[in-house]
Design goal:
It contains two helices and 18 strands. It is mainly β. It folds into three domains: about 10-45, Ribbon (Seminal Fluid Protein  PDC-109 (Domain B)); about 65-110, no CATH class; about 115-219, Immunoglobulin-like (Sandwich).
């Protein structure tokens, strides 16, 4: 450090209270170990706050400076909580990004479950074909299930389309979920296959022989 020494006028707090410095003058308050900035008219000038007085010398772990009073106020340390379950239910604390993601993920997981057979062309010894009955094991229970059937040309899902689930007794070109238990549902394929619609909106009957199906259930 260069050997240069600069000294400012100095005095105690009491001395400053009766001293009016020149405009722009800076003096040292030896009582409070800080500076005073003067404007040429205010006795004592304006005392500058030290770091410790501003509350910035020490901030608690996982905290931020802010104001949660709802009105103008001096900033204070606000907790930042890393709670995956949000159990504290605080109206004044912030949450970490990780805890927010973990909480949202847990809510989505608990609210919705999904089951998919994947693309299959057999059910044990039963082959996907017109009139075939296939059974699949699941773990979604029986309440408020949404079931969709898809048909494709191969195990990669080529040319896949969703099939209308319709009462087989009323329409032999359809697919019907005949039975649902807490662990299994049975799918009956129509005796004439299913109805498809081309890009022009023209319907035709498609045989399910040699096709692959995928059952997706959400509940």
């Amino acid at each position: 450090m260069p050997n240069i020494e600069v000294k400012l006028r100095r005095g105690t707090e009491a001395e400053h209270n009766t001293f009016t410095g020149a405009e722009g003058e800076v003096t040292v308050d030896t009582t409070n170990d800080t500076l005073r900035v003067h404007d040429g008219s205010t006795a004592g000038g304006v005392r500058l706050a030290k770091l410790s007085e501003a509350g910035l010398d020490s901030i608690p772990n996982l905290s931020a400076l802010g104001n949660v009073s709802g009105t103008s106020a001096v900033p204070v340390a606000i907790d930042i909580k890393d709670e995956d379950t949000m159990t504290s239910d605080s109206a004044t604390a912030l949450a970490t990004q990780q805890s927010i993601k973990a909480y949202v993920d847990s809510q989505v997981t608990s609210a919705v479950s999904k089951y998919s057979t994947g693309w299959v062309n057999t059910d044990g010894s039963t082959t996907v074909a017109n009139s075939a009955t296939l059974s699949f094991t699941h773990s979604l229970g029986t309440t408020d299930l949404i079931i969709t059937c898809y048909v494709a040309d191969d195990a990669s899902g080529t040319n896949s389309f969703a099939v209308s689930l319709t009462d087989i007794s009323q329409n032999s070109q359809a697919v019907q979920v005949k039975d649902i238990t807490t662990t299994e549902f049975t799918v009956q394929l129509g005796s004439q296959g299913t109805v498809t619609t081309n890009s022009s909106g023209v319907a035709s009957i498609t045989s399910l022989a040699s096709k692959y199906i995928k059952i997706v259930a959400i509940g």
